[in-house]
Amino acid sequence: MKLFSKEQLNKARNDKNQEIRMTTDKLVSSMKKAMKLKESFDFDTEKAKAIHDFDVFCQTLNDKKSQALKELNNFTSARDLAKDELYSVIARKDKFEDEILDLKEEISRLQPQVEFIKLKLKEYA
User: Fold this and answer.
1) Which of 26, 40, 43, 79 could serve as 47's disulfide partner, Cβ 3.0–4.6 Å?
2) Which residues have C-beta within 8 Å of that of residue 31, sequence separation ≥ 6?
């Protein structure tokens, strides 16, 4: 599993946010223009339908943007959970390695006593 650096994630998030802001700004300016046109002219049926279609398009785009942001938040949460789990696994691994090292030291400390006892057992046998 590849973890992304904080800088990479921040850059990706900032790029995505910038793209969303630009799209939103374009939509807002287009919507304002459409609203001004709607107020200043008496639309015929085709123009009214085009404006309605544009409104539907904007709403659909906003819904997609909201869905994308939810997915981004879900991915971020999942990444954070995976990162926390990885850190806990690493901590347990370090703990086990420390215990193994302690046991090896204990064995090396007790080895002379074991050899001495074996030697004495051979003498009495």
Assistant:
1) 43
2) 54, 55, 58
Q: What is the pLDDT of residues 40-63, one digit of tens each?
A: 766 578 878 888 999 999 999 999
The Cα–Cα gap between 121 and 60 comes to 87
Please, what is the angle between helix 45-124 and helix 6-40, to 10°?
170
Quote the CA–CA distance of 8 and 6 in Å, as a whole number.
5
Q: Within a domain: residue 1?
A: no
Count of structural domains, the chain: 1
pTM for the predicted model, two decimal places: 0.44
Which residues constitute the domain of residue 60? 6-124
